[in-house]
Structures are given as C-alpha cells and as structure tokens.
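Just curious: can you write whichever protein you like plus the matching structure tokens?

***
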Amino acid sequence: MLLTANPAISTLEAVVTGAGQVLLAFSVVFALLNCFFGYKLIKVWAAIAGFLLGWVIGFFAALYFLENVGACALIGVVVGVLCGLAAFFVYRVGVFLFCFFQGLSLCLALIPNWPGAVVGLIVGIALGVLAMKFLREVLILSSAVGGGMNASTGLFSLFGYLGNPLLMWVVGVALAAAGAFVQWKTTGEKKDGTSL
C-alpha cells in the first residue's frame, strides 16, 4: 500500500512555513529600525524589553504557585505591562534593560549553547553599566551593531542564502557602520544626556 500525502498536513506545513517567513521579515524590519533609529526609539525599545522581562518573571513566579498555565500567562502579561510602563517612564532603567538585551541577544546569536548565554550575560551587564555613563555613545553603538548583525542574519535566512557566513558578516558590519553613522549625524544629546 502506497502512502499518499495528506492534503491537510501539506496545507498546515505551508501555513507554518509562510508564517515563519512573515515573522522573519518582521524581525528584519525591526532590526533595521534598531540599526538606523535605535537611539531615537530608545523609549519604545526599553518598554518592549521591560515588558518581556516582566512577562517572564510574572509567568514563572505565578507558575510556581498556580497550575493553570492560562492564568499564569495572564499574570505574566499584567506584570509585563507594568514593567514595560516603568521602563518607558523611568528612562535609565529602560536604557539599562535595552542595552542588556542587545548584548545578550548578540552573543547568543554569535556563540552557540551555554557559553553564549554566559558571555551574553556578562556583555549585557557591561553594556548596561557603560550606558549609564556614556548614554548616547553606547546606545548608538549597541543598537547599530545589534540591529545590523541581526538584520544581516535575517536577510540571509529570508532569501535562503546561508552558505557564505563571511559575506553575512561583511553585510552585518556594513549595516552596523551605516547605522551608527546615520544615528550619530541625526541625533544630538541634551544636557541631561537624553535624546527625547
């Protein structure tokens, strides 16, 4: 008896593949925005970073006490929104979180497995601390480098051309340099060290 392809499974696979491509395209757009406008959008990014951190903390803390995953997810959302609002309005906390996540995500993308997580935590904390002293410079560099490298990786994945990692690095570095240049030329620092 010959096995025939199930049309429902084929359709589901096509939908999942299409959704993955759409999410990948959105991540490339997000990375490019970060690369070229990260400093100007810092409050938005800080709010997103605060929400993600709050959601993780709220979800897992609730999971410790409750068995209902849906309720835990809802509690995570509430804590995430509160942390996101705090990061948006308490500027320096948001900046620290943003720089921390930039360093962590970049190291996780470049270094595999647990060494990437360890190095990422160290780099993320170092970037967050440096941003408290050299706000504009660290924000511009971290958003340009993180955005440029992530955009390059996403673009190469989107077009299915992952066979040449050297070219991917070259494109990432070029985007990072262009993003840093654009941000440096289009932003100014206020007396309190903020951009907004």
In short: The chain is about 85% helix and 0% strand. The helical segments are 7-37, 42-65, 69-89, 91-110, 113-133, 135-158, 165-186.
